Amino acid sequence: MSDIIESIRKELIQSANGKAKLSAERYFIGGIKLYGVITPEVNRISKSYFKNIEDKSKSNIFSLCEELWKSGFVEESIVACHWAYNIYKEYIPVDFKVFDKWVKNYLNNWASCDTLCNHAVGTFVEMFPEYLTSLKEWAKSENRWVKRASSVSLIIPARRGKFLKDIFDIADILHSDKDDMVQKGYGWMLKAASQAHQNEVFNYVMKRKSTMPRTSLRYSIEKMSPELKAQIMLK
After folding, report:
1. Of 10, 29, 35, 221, which one has the greatest count of Cβ atoms within 10 A?
2. Which residues pair with 33 in a beta bridge?
3. Which stretch of DSSP H or E encloses residue 48?
4. For helices 198-208 and 180-194, what crossing angle results, to 10°?
5. What is the DSSP secondary-structure string of 113-161?
6. Residue pLDDT, tens place only, 147-205
7. How far is residue 231 from each of residues 130, 189, 190, 219, 221, measured CA to CA in Å?
8. In whole angstroms, how far apart are CA 99 and each of 49, 59, 65, 116, 200?
């Protein structure tokens, strides 16, 4: 195990707080592993140790990230997400295999899912849009976190007005999913898209409002004008 990984783990243990751990456990589903370190402290540790990595080659960073993911601790996964995004300028198409592995093998909570996908995966897809088809395959998964990943990877591109047709395609695949984590994920994606394409998203939701899960619908219209919200909520 790398010395830097061992040092990070020691610092996370030292920074752990019992109250923070109990508080965080209320926001996660299932038996996840937590040290109990508050988010600002995790972010500080991530930045501090990244600066101290001598070999910042992509292969080494991805290797260190893999070790962090393997631990199963949420805080270590967040560090891995930050480090993977820090080297986004070096991404090449074949790197999707790395992200695909992490999404399918390691994601088990919304924080790790959203941190990885909002930034590293979302940026990758903006750089290589041909991989939008892979996100649509994720949307067909049986795994709740892989399905959520398909939508939350497009949050930032959606805010920039990109990939609207693909966003609607993914929303269609996830439309009737009964998992609230998936419903919130694709509702969030539609909400982000509405910031650049309010009328298009309004029309999309209006056509499906009678069959969309209420959670997805409410998320999707949060950024719309009061007038449009009222039309959608009208029975």
Report:
1. 221
2. 73
3. helix 39-51
4. 140
5. HHHIIIIIIHHHHHH-GGGHHHHHHHHT-SSHHHHHHHHHTTHHHHHTT
6. 999 999 999 999 999 999 999 999 999 999 999 999 999 999 999 999 999 999 999 99
7. 36, 20, 17, 15, 11
8. 22, 13, 11, 9, 30
